[in-house]
Amino acid sequence: MTPRSRAITSRQTGPHEDLSRRVTRALAHPLRKPIAVHTREAFDQARLWRAEQGERPLVLDAGCGVGLSTRRLAVRFPEAVVIGIDRSADRLSRDHGPLPDNALLVRADLVDFWRLALAEGWRPARHFLLYPNPYPKPAHLKMRWQGHPVLPTILALGGCLELRSNWRLYVEEFALAVAQATGVAATVEAFEPGAAFLTPFERKYHESGQPLWRLVVELPYRPALVPGT
Ligand SMILES: C[S@@+](CC[C@H](N)C(=O)[O-])C[C@H]1O[C@@H](n2cnc3c(N)ncnc32)[C@H](O)[C@@H]1O
């Protein structure tokens, strides 16, 4: 049985008042954080693995947790190669069955992995952000992807970007940030997974009776979005 989970509570009743300022800042100031050695090594392995797969569309599963979604996406998109990235060695090591040949799990920090992917010229056909940590405290806006300095890199990679969350406000803020940074409008919609869960968090939230939300947006490849490039 899946444990029940409580809906997100936050003092925020609408999009964070600093969101627009954070996005403006991310678009203007380069992210100076050095790339961690372990992520550079993990990226190199992913690059070599990808090169062995030939010219196939790329699907990124960013923050893949235990990698169930990576496995399911690899089955759903057999023509593509699917790379699941998560920083938690513990989650990645859990046994969720064999990995399809077209899937790879990578332990890495996304903030660095995304920057390396863009520098390498990767252009994912699809990019999934499935149930990212919500950081509901207003003071933690900068830890949500829409308030993080890496946002321009996420968007610059382009492709069909899909975000899912059990916190509607997270998806609404992300849509506002996408529109501000790229001019592309993204619609926030209620999402009913039925029995076809993509991730353990999706299953847990749905079985706890929580509504789920998502945004799907087609973005152009635009490396110039990232300041200092
Ligand atoms: C709430 S869990 C969702 C996991 C999975 N997508 C699911 O729906 O079951 C968020 C995941 O994002 C990962 N994560 C958060 N920040 C990260 C970062 N900077 N780099 C890599 N992984 C990160 C966490 O380790 C965690 O597994």
UniProtKB/TrEMBL annotation:
Catalysed reactions, as listed in the record: guanosine(46) in tRNA + S-adenosyl-L-methionine = N(7)-methylguanosine(46) in tRNA + S-adenosyl-L-homocysteine
Keywords from the named record: Methyltransferase, S-adenosyl-L-methionine, Transferase, tRNA processing
Matches recorded under SUPFAM superfamilies: S-adenosyl-L-methionine-dependent methyltransferases (SSF53335)
Superkingdom classification of source: Bacteria
A UniProt-annotated Pfam family: Methyltransf_4
UniProt key word Methyltransferase: yes
Region (Disordered): 1-20
Annotated EC: 2.1.1.33
CDD domains referenced in this protein's UniProt entry, alphabetically: AdoMet_MTases (cd02440)
InterPro entries listed in its UniProt record: SAM-dependent_MTases_sf, tRNA_(Gua-N-7)_MeTrfase_Trmb
GO molecular function, one term: tRNA (guanine(46)-N7)-methyltransferase activity
Function: Catalyzes the formation of N(7)-methylguanine at position 46 (m7G46) in tRNA.
Protein name as catalogued: tRNA (guanine(46)-N(7))-methyltransferase
